[in-house]
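Q: Given only this backbone (463 positions), what sequence would you predict?
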């Protein structure tokens, strides 16, 4: 008999964000086969798919009486300024329902990996997993279900002696040894019906050292690759079993290393299916071979984390590329016919009115298909930027709540400067100000049946 036989687990995704995309909880697809292999019964509650989350939670707790509940937090907030919104206060009702049933709760997800102790403290919960969970989730659940002490497993964080104890994470070395994701727990058909986009991982880990970024805290610095054939198998199953023909490669940086990205794109092409997808890319290096291969495999657009078109700002953000690299990448994409959107951050360390103008002028000259511009840099604890700001005398608040740093040289003008520019130039999206970025707009786009990237449509609409 399996160790987990008879144990019921409920996995909850509280994410209700619909702007710009409706995204299913990918972690559930990776955890479910591990739990099922141990004999543990897995049920899910996805608040994106129910009208009243607390009522749905009460009902499913009554029906299942789970031994353990997993609460997966994808994002802590919307990372947008000045319209900053924390998602954590909305969890209070769910946590209250769980506390009333006295069921053990494990908190995890990307948002928790950023600052697990702070999240546990705010929510009043006791146990979290920081980082990957496939290799620790079964023994952790078995211990909690039996009422045993919390085991000291990699990435586990728990209350002890009035404080918290954190066991350092140990990223999984061989992703190819993990079982195939179980997409049935995501209800892909339901997401397809509401215009959602299923995510696919081809790799984990980020070797870069961007000063504000938390991906190394979530996935580690060491790149680990999934075999391209396994990625293609996922897509074949999604297409054959659910009719899913649009997806997003949810890697932090798909084209690092580039040879892996080319191999994955070729494996997708070899499926010979009518698929379309998007992916996050770095402009550090993008060869014509990769651009051509992406386009031939069905890539409908690359999303570049360029951040700025000004070298002093790029240096201040710790980016591993410079303005010249971005310009060359834009030219490579244009020559291949690969649509592209560049994500920008204005107001970082070293930003001045002159560097803002440099980026705006370059955007007009280079004319990528779309630009997503954020004002201010979301500051997270345990990042080099947070440490540098504190060392320079900047008084940082409790960072579990949204806090954006904006260079004092532009803080009074940056929002209006970006709005004025965006109103005069098509293809600009400003999440913090709502320009071409709000739930109503994206819902209208989804209702038309359009299934490509929203940013590409906005450019064609000249808005």
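A: Predicted residues:
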């Amino acid at each position: 008999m399996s160790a987990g036989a008879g144990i019921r687990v409920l996995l909850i995704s509280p994410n209700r964000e619909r702007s710009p995309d409706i995204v299913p909880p990918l972690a559930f697809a990776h955890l479910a086969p591990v739990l099922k292999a141990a004999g543990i019964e897995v049920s899910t509650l996805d608040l994106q798919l129910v009208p009243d989350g607390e009522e749905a939670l009460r009902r499913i707790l009554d029906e299942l009486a789970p031994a353990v509940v997993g609460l997966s937090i994808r994002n802590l907030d919307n990372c947008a300024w000045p319209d900053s919104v924390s998602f954590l206060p909305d969890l209070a009702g769910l946590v209250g329902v769980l506390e009333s049933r006295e069921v053990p709760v494990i908190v995890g997800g990307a948002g928790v990996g950023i600052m697990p102790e702070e999240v546990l403290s705010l929510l009043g919960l006791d146990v979290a997993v920081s980082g990957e969970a496939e290799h620790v989730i079964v023994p952790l659940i078995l211990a909690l279900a039996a009422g045993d002490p919390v085991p000291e497993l990699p990435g586990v964080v728990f209350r002890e002696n009035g404080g918290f104890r954190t066991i350092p994470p140990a990223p999984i070395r061989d992703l190819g040894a993990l079982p195939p994701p179980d997409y049935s727990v995501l209800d892909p058909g339901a997401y397809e019906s509401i215009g959602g986009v299923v995510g696919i991982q081809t790799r984990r880990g980020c070797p870069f050292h961007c000063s504000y970024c938390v991906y190394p805290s979530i996935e580690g610095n060491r790149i680990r690759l999934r075999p391209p054939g396994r990625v293609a198998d996922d897509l074949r199953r999604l297409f054959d079993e659910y009719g899913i023909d649009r997806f997003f490669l949810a890697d932090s940086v798909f084209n690092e290393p580039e040879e892996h990205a080319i191999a994955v794109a070729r494996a997708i092409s070899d499926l010979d299916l009518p698929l379309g997808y998007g992916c996050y890319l770095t402009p550090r290096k993008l060869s014509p071979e990769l651009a051509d291969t992406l386009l031939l495999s069905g890539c409908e657009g690359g999303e570049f984390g360029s951040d700025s078109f000004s070298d002093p700002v790029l240096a201040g953000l710790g980016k591993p590329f410079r303005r010249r690299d971005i310009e060359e990448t834009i030219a490579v994409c244009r020559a291949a016919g690969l649509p592209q959107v560049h994500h920008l951050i204005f107001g970082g360390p070293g930003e001045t009115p002159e560097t803002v103008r440099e980026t705006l002028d370059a955007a007009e000259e280079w004319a990528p298909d779309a630009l997503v511009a954020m004002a201010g840099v979301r500051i997270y604890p345990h990042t080099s930027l947070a440490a540098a700001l504190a060392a320079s005398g900047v008084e940082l608040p409790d960072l579990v709540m949204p806090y954006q740093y904006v260079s004092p040289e532009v803080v009074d003008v940056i929002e209006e400067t970006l709005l004025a520019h965006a109103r005069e130039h098509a293809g600009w999206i400003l999440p913090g100000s709502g320009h071409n970025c709000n739930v109503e707009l994206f819902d209208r786009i989804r209702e038309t049946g359009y299934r490509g990237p929203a940013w590409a449509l906005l450019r064609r609409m000249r808005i």
